[in-house]
Amino acid sequence: MTTHRLSAYLAPRRRLRLASLLTAPVLWLGLVYVVALAALLVTAFWTVNELTGQVQIEWTTENVVEVLTEALYRTVTLRTLGIALLVTVVDIIVAVPVAFFMAKVASARLRHLLVIAVLAPLWASYLVKVYAWRALLSSDGLIEWAVSPFGGSTPGYGIVGIVLTLSYLWLPYVIMPIYAGFDRVPDRLLEASADLGAKGWRTLVSVVLPTIWPAIIAGSIFAFSLSLGDYITTRIVGGSTQMIGTLVYTNVGAANNLPLAAAISLIPIGIILVYLAAVRRTGALRSL
Amino acid sequence: MQLGRVARIVLATITVVVLALIYLPLGVVFLNSISTSESLSWPPPGFTLEWWGRALESTGALEALGTSVVVALIASTIALVLGTLAAMALSRYRFFGKETVNLLIVLPIALPGIVTGIALNNAFRTLMGVDLAMWTLVVAHATFCIVTVYNNAFARLNASGTRLEEASMDLGAGLFTTFRLVTFPYLKSSLMAGGLLAFALSFDEIIVTTFTAGSGVTTLPLWILQNMFRPSQAPVVAVIAVILAVLSVIPLAIAQRLTAKDAEAVAR
Fold first, then answer.
1. How many CA within 13 A on the CB side of residue B226?
2. Are B106 and A288 within 8 A, CB to CB?
3. Of A22, A37, A200, the CB nearest to B3
4. Which of A69, A155, A226, B54 is the most exposed place for a label (fewest CB within 10 A)?
5. What is the pTM of this model?
6. Which residue out of A4, A67, A101 would a mutagenesis test of the B interface target, given it has the greatest number of B Cβ atoms within 10 Å?
7. Distance (Å, rounded) from C-alpha A80 to C-alpha A76?
8. ipTM of this predicted complex?
9. Which residues of B fall within a CB distance of 8 Å from A14?
10. C-alpha span between A97 and A205 (Å, rounded)
11. Cβ-proximal residues to B113 (8 Å cutoff; 6+ apart), any chain
């Protein structure tokens, strides 16, 4: 038996066992992803041949300087950041009570149904959900129909539409980690808190929230990161609103200027790395 | 937990309202799929089954469905293997650079899709000089799917501890026998759940897909994107979405049942 011999050979060799487990995933992620990211950084310092439209290796800081100094990019970055933060906050505010109800109030049977009910919409196509919101937000859509008797009107296509649609899209991604976080809080801990005289509210603030904080951060990474890079929602329900994603897409597609697109994409990379570094200490990355 | 009656009712009400809001747009898509209005105006002026007949005859949509299934199957299989290996390494060993490997796995999903998309587009086209095709799409999808399998497997391995595996080894079972008879049965349901999530992630992905799919490769999301602005096709797109939403509940229910059974077995 060759597997037998291999097993006997590997058993006392801890490093070799570790290496045989790690080699494939680290090679894949390293070769495919890290190299691609590094190449992206390098491409930001190259240029495009004005005649042929081909990327050529001619070193310049022109793209990066343009992105850092032009007012357009600053405005769009701040707008994108604002939208992503707003979406994250909206999702957390909605997700926390729902996740808490699922994990700690609902019966086991109801909990399973609720998990399915929350997860199922993830499988419905992202695009059709955005398109559903295009229909909802349109001037003869459901929102207009529902609020016009009260003198309101649909927010239409713009920043409000983007925030509503993105919050809707990422909500299940935010509910699930927070639900898992609540689920990990042992009931004994809550009972102990109650036995020591804490009312429900006090238990929530002093016992539950500190315990599930990493789970909330984990949920926020989804909402924040997914919003930061979105360009399809912006195109469909954003009217003429520009976000970082639409600028990158225009430069890869229509303008065919990969180096400038690479330079613009450094903005969200920078923002996310700062964000991840800030939340790394909470241990949230492990509860993603 | 000790909660007042009012608090329970408030929480239940919020949950019901949020779930209703989650399903409202999907319900609107369903009604649009049988509405006589081609521009999806509300309320629907009348109902018709014409779009359903047209959708089931649409070869473009059916071919795109096939492409999506193939891409998602291959990508989630690769992710299953790589994610499980990584989870076993990170849950069972302590080593230098562990945090970095963890970050490496999370990065493709933590970075905005557009960054992953343009980075891979640039790597394939500029760095490697190859044309985008189906395999470039599969590679891209597998890369961001690894994390979902990894997370599920890692959580289960961490929860189970090493005692059972140590007992198996003490009783004379080798590494592979221990994996086959102890670790894998324990991991099975979480791998199933992780695999289903990876499949769903790939199936629905559009942003990285627009940057890494070859010109002849049309996944279902790409087909929907190409067709949704054609006025006559909009209700057909809605039909396809309804079918997908209904079909998707089945594998999720299976996964959920598996996990529940598994939890019972563990508790016993």
1. 13
2. yes
3. A200
4. A69
5. 0.80
6. A101
7. 6
8. 0.81
9. 93
10. 13
11. A226, A229, A230, B205, B207, B208
| Chain A partners within 8 Å of B81 (Cβ) | 24
Closest approach of chain A CAs to the CA of B58, in angstroms? Answer: 17
Does the pLDDT value for residue A96 go beyond 80? yes
| Whether pLDDT at B252 is above 70 | no
Residue range A119-129: average pLDDT? Answer: 74
pLDDT at res. A229 = 82
Of the two residues B79 and B37, the one the predictor is more confident about is B79
Q: Is the pLDDT of residue B267 over 90?
A: no
Chain A residue numbers touching B43 (CB-CB < 8 A): 142, 145
Full set of structural domains in chain B with CATH:
51-267 (1.10.3720.10)
Q: What is the pLDDT of residue B185?
A: 87
Tokens matching residue B192: 């199933």
CB of B29 closer than 8 Å to CB of A132 = yes
Task: Search chain A and give the residue with CA nearest B14.
Answer: A98
Q: Which residues pair with A91 in a beta bridge?
A: none
Structure-block tokens of residue B204: 């629905």
The secondary structure of residue A241, as a DSSP letter, is -
Q: What are phi and psi of A47, to 5 degrees?
A: -130, 170
Q: State the fold for domain A66-287.
A: MetI-like fold (1.10.3720)
Q: Which residues of B touch A230 (CB under 8 A)?
A: 112-114, 207
